[in-house]
Amino acid sequence: MYKSLAFFAALLSVSNPSKAFNLHEYLTLVANNHPEILAIDATTGQYGADIQYADGAYDAKLDHNSFSRVTGYYDGLQASQKFSKPLEAYNAEIFSEYRISHGDFPVYEQEYATLSGGEASVGVKLSLLQGRDTDKKRTAMASARLKYKMWNEEAKLAQSEFYYAAILAYLDWIESVSYFNKIQQLVEVGINRQEGMKRRVAEGDIAEIELLEFETRLLERQSTFLSAERNVQANIQKLRYYMHSNASVDDIQNAPSHNTTDSTTGMVWPNAFKSVIHGGVSTSHPALAAKAYEMQELKQKMRLAKVALLPKLDVEAKLARDIGSGPTSLQDTEAKIGLYFSVPFERSQAKAKKSRTQFEINALEQKTNALQGSIDAKLKERLINLTYAKRLHDMQKKQVVLSRKLFEQEQRQFEFGSSDFFMLNTREVDAFQAELKAMTARINVFREELAIMKLNAKLNHQFIQNTLLSKFTFSEK
């Protein structure tokens, strides 16, 4: 067991104890291209591509059409090219066309005939009722942009959850190493005291049963030490996942120094973290902002559902002129106006869509209110916990001072022979437990503050990057 102690102590020691593996170094590695962060970025790119796809509905296009008769009485051939560009306003479309024909056409195909130079035309189509204010294409464009914004807010939530778990793993590691360091000191002191007790037994100063009792307690400490060693190794594995770098394991194993009495003593908290710890739920909270964008999307759907109840009335205007020689009937400029009118008598589907969308809006309003209330209640609970955690930490620090004084006095009495091992061991364990409680209380203060930051969704990637760039202005507890 002593060999295991020496080995693991060497594993945790560093040549320069001042170079502790601090939170800044850890977060620098965590924020550097971790797969979970990269996956969030890739998802953001997908929503960006959806915007581009929706915008593509208004891309211009060029159509070509031609035909010729290879057999039969008539030998007419015709070719046309049409350029069209959809517009958002009034569901409009502007177009221009050039077509040319040659040969003879039957009477029922005279619309293909042109002068020798062909026919050029320009025109516009637009909606006057259904489709005028909005349509499926415009709704799809607005929806794609709203979903992109909504995902950006959801990404902040996902990032905040990730960094919360990562920093919590770091605090767990700090606590486990601090516990390991303290139990290590107890074991080392016990081993040294064991040698002294053996000499006193040999000299007849104390009974052998006291040595056996002491060795039993020492074995308990060594078992606790082994459990602490396992806990440290488990927390190292957690850090390895978040750091996403095997090369950094040495940094973890080499810090903090095993000679440090309390590893949490050197634990510092960025002022940037403390500045975002508050109990109020902001309307800009990513979860609420995402719901707001979702509401905007539903209102876009409602507009489309209302428009679908209107009759469809489209108008098309076109100017065309033939160029070259040919029949006199084709030589003048033509102006055409066309109307398309459609009235749906049974509008069950359109009414159902409108009704469903209204129910979705009502449900989302209630979900948003419930979400805001839930976040607010959890924040208030965490603020209460933080207040008591700080008070408990202050009390535990006082308890450490008193327990150390009692142990030191008991140790002097034991050395003078006016006390026994059992009382000394009790005082030593009490002092050890007091230090452990103070250490845990201090870490719990960090945990409560971290939970508040997570509830406020402040631990997003941009915030962490800005905190790292500021090189961590720290605040001691």
TrEMBL record:
A matching Pfam family: OEP
GO cellular component: cell outer membrane; efflux pump complex
Organism field: Paraglaciecola polaris LMG 21857
One Gene Ontology term of the molecular function aspect: efflux transmembrane transporter activity
InterPro entries: OMP_efflux, TolC-like
Cell compartment(s), UniProt: Cell outer membrane
Family per similarity comment: Belongs to the outer membrane factor (OMF) (TC 1.B.17) family.
Signal sequence segment: 1-20
Protein name, entry field: Outer membrane protein-like
The keyword Transmembrane is annotated on this UniProt entry: yes
Keywords, sorted A to Z: Cell outer membrane, Membrane, Signal, Transmembrane, Transmembrane beta strand, Transport
